[in-house]
């Protein structure tokens, strides 16, 4: 077997970034143990399971979920379809088998696997901003509505405050338009993360 230096570097950077974010990675491979172990060691995967059938992959998935783990699965083969369908978050790529694509929640429309990290970063940032906007809106209304009802604030000032509050929420949400972080690779070039994140979309065929 052979794993090119660029591919190894890109995937190792992805595994490293996921680990830095607190994730634990596992390689579920249908290849023999020697090949799976060699690839897993190159990439820095935490756990390696070789010679997995689709049923065995699904068994591992259900065991993690029964332990309270939230599991994200990345796969592109026909044998990955059952575990993609059962994962909490499933990711495939546009060049994958049609059944893998149709089973996935997210399809990456580029070849750079680091887009997986950018997708997780984007989802985490989205959740944080949603919470910030919600807390701001609740806090503002808890203060402004009683003040306006008690006549402590002029109607025109209350209306202006509501408009300003909406602008603050919109401005905070606009931070999601920022480019995702780039990944360093071995020859010290940078790959623009926005190239793949623009190709990151929720797949429309899976409910």
Please outline what is shown here.
The protein contains 8 helices and 8 strands.
Throw out a few tags for this protein.
207 residues; alpha/beta; Rossmann fold; 2 domains; 4-stranded mixed β-sheet; two-stranded parallel ribbon; 8 helices; 8 strands; disordered N terminus; disordered C terminus
Descriptive account of the structure:
With 207 residues, the protein is of the alpha/beta class. It has 2 domains: 5-114, 3-Layer(aba) Sandwich (Rossmann fold), CATH 3.40.50; 116-202. The protein has helices at 5-20, 33-43, 54-66, 81-86, 98-103, 115-149, 155-173, 193-197; strands spanning 26-28, 47-49, 72-74, 89-93, 106-108, 183-184, 190-191, 200-202. Helix 6 (115-149) runs antiparallel to helix 7.
- Low-confidence segments: 1-6, 184-194, 197-207
CATH topology call of the largest domain: Rossmann fold
- The assigned CATH architecture of the largest domain is 3-Layer(aba) Sandwich
Number of helix segments? Answer: 8
């Amino acid at each position: 077997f052979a794993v090119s230096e660029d591919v190894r570097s890109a995937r190792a950077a992805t595994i490293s970034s996921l680990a830095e974010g607190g994730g634990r990675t596992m390689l579920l491979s249908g290849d023999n143990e020697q090949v799976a172990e060699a690839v897993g060691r190159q990439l820095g995967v935490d756990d390696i399971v070789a010679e997995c059938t689709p049923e065995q992959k699904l068994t591992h998935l259900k065991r993690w979920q029964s332990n309270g783990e939230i599991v994200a699965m990345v796969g592109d083969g026909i044998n990955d379809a059952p575990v993609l369908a059962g994962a909490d978050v499933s990711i495939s790529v546009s060049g994958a088998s049609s059944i893998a694509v149709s089973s996935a929640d997210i399809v990456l429309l580029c070849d750079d696997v680091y887009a997986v990290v950018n997708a997780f970063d984007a989802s985490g940032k989205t959740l944080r901003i949603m919470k910030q906007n919600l807390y701001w809106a609740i806090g503002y209304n808890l203060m402004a509505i009683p003040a306006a009802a008690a006549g402590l604030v002029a109607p025109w000032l209350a209306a202006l405050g509501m408009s300003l509050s909406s602008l603050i929420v919109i401005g905070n949400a606009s931070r999601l338009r920022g480019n995702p972080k780039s990944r360093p690779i071995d020859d010290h070039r940078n790959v623009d993360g926005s190239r793949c994140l623009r190709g990151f979309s929720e797949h429309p065929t899976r409910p």
